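Case study 2.
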Amino acid sequence: MSSQNVWSAFEENVKKTPHKAAVIYLGTRYSYLLLKRNSDAFAAALSNMGVKKGDRVVIYAPNSPQWMIAFLGIQRIGAVAVPITPIYTPPDVSFICNNCEARLIVCADANLGYVLQVLPQTKLEHAIVTGVAELLPTWKRFIGKAFDKIPGGRIPLSDKVSTFRQILKDGHRCTPPDTTGEREETCAIMYTGGTTGFPKGVPISHAALLENIYWVKKAKEPVIPADGDVVLQGAPLFHILGLGGGLICPLCIGGDTVLLPPRVNLDGLMDWTQRYDATSLFAVPSFYRMVLEHDRADQYNLTSLQYCLTGGDVVPVELHKRWFDKYRKPLYQAYGITEAAGAVSLSFADEQTPEGSAGRILPCNEAKLVIPGTLEPVPKGEPGELLLSSKHGPKHYWNSPEDTRESFVEADGKIWYRTKDIISIDEKGYLFFVDREADLIKHKGYRIAAAEIERVLQEHPAVIAACAVGVPDARVGERIKAFAVLKEDVRGLSAQELISWCRGKLAPYKVPEYIEFRDSLPKSKVGKLLRREVRSYERKKVEES
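Prediction:
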């Protein structure tokens, strides 16, 4: 990529096709030019509020045109976007805002209550609030409210709280400063689950994001003409693969159109596919399985889809076969992580990817396999822990030196990221996932720290020890199962009560589905919890059932 930064790459496409639809959201089309004008206005308003180059701005909202405008506007003035999932609870939001020292937050109206709770605990100076329908035409908003499709309520405006619409109105009256980011500077901090239970911020440069996503576009080109992609966004923008595949790739590299649903709804996505002739889609494996098992799938015409990409979890071979048998199109697979700024390996449309492979290691990534827990290379042809390095890729975690020392190592004059995933790579560079070394649970595409769930369980006054593991499940990747050891004098406490306890302290996707009571948990000689033994036992039970 020759572009200086994310904003200049977007501007190039605005100049080429100003009136082309950049985004289609709930039936409303937003052209490249309109998106740019609103992003300029948002940038100008931020600048007037004191946000400067390098300042961090959190985006805490679901998919919407406002999300894209906020992200692009932040890039316009060289600030740093910090996207987070809208289902985070106050402790998560507070931790992230303090960790990145954010000055401002853009949040959904449904999350304003949480934001008001954390304002006194952080350095946040202002909250910009938006609703799902805020930028829709007036007549659509009227109909939505008349039929109770748009949530009601009043936003408590103050000197610290403004609406997104008002911010744009203010911004349109002035011009943003010309302070876009440099190519090697950070454009976004993406927070990902950590083994300690606290989210870890991955600073991603303009160069890393543009270079990585450039290869996603190249992978599609053999089956989708240049500037002719209609991307159905099946992933959240706050996720690195959703941001790359649903914003950077189509708007900053491809000059394409994004179909942006506010949330993932199976019938809705299939209807959008046939209505707008979607040509590419990225979604987690469980989505494709749900399509195959959906009793109304045959009512929709999905033949326009040419490049269906999946990642975020292991994809069973049988899922690939079922998808091809039904739609006569391959299901392309990727292996990606936040610490690599997106995809590590990718299936190219003009290549025959070996069965079971997550594609070929991308040219922008350098990989090596080592003996787990060491830096010693494995014998040729054998699996090992995957280490990754790239010229522009992340080299540390944001404001987290201890996590950085644990996960980033120096060897051969380069900084390598330890994935803690056991991988094999064949002689042609195709990657095969073997096992997971880290104590992270992969549930519906999320990476969840076992330690976080255990910490919440152990905060319950009746629990003295806890363990959380992922149990293999074809539909969601891994189900979350927890084990608890209770105090000797506790009687009558049910698993459901502990699950309810977790619901009050964890994001919904982190809550255990099952809790089993144990008299004790396996530990090493030095008293360390042996999650691996518990996980192996549970996996064996699944295999034998």
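The longest helix spans residues 32-48.
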